[in-house]
Amino acid sequence: MWTDKRNLYISQHPLDELELLEDKVVVAQHVHHIIPFGYHKSEADRIFYLMNEDNFISLTVENHLKIHNHFEQLTTKQQEYIKDKIKLVKSQYITNLVDRL
């Protein structure tokens, strides 16, 4: 399930999305979940974050490590892009949650 989704996403987004913000063309090797899916208590929540393409970002190995370990090393533009995606996904999550009531 996830592998197919990941393969489709990286085929549609083959370049590092953070490097593109800096007008650089660099091939991505990873698909990162901006909001981790494993920390959520319910299965529905985990699936939402695992499979929501707005929660994905194609990255190089180097940028993937920066996000996890050295976020401050990203440019301001890159940090803002990630923060905006977090806001989008959280908004979608709230809508999804309300729809389940």
In short:
With 101 residues, this protein is mostly helical. The chain has helices at residues 2-12, 17-21, 43-51, 61-69, 76-99; strands at residues 30-33, 56-59.
Tell me what you see in this structure.
The chain starts with a helix and ends with a helix. Strands 1-2 form a two-stranded antiparallel sheet. It is built from five helices and two strands. The chain is mainly α.
List the helices and strands and how they pair.
Layout (H helix, E strand, L loop, with lengths): L1 H11 L4 H5 L8 E4 L9 H9 L4 E4 L1 H9 L6 H24 L2
Antiparallel strand pairs: 1-2
Q: How many structural domains? A: 1
User: Pairing-aware structural class of the strands and helices?
Assistant: mainly alpha
Strand order of the main beta sheet, please?
1-2
Quaternary structure: single chain
Alpha-carbon distance between the two ends? 26 Å
Low-confidence stretches: none
Rg of Cα set: 14 Å
The averaged pLDDT comes out at 93
Shape: globular
Q: Give the number of DSSP strands.
A: 2
N-to-C series of helices and strands: HHEHEHH
How much strand?
Answer: 5-15%
Q: Name the helicity range.
A: 55-70%
Q: What are the main properties of this structure?
A:
2 strands; 101 residues; mainly alpha; two-stranded antiparallel ribbon; 8% strand
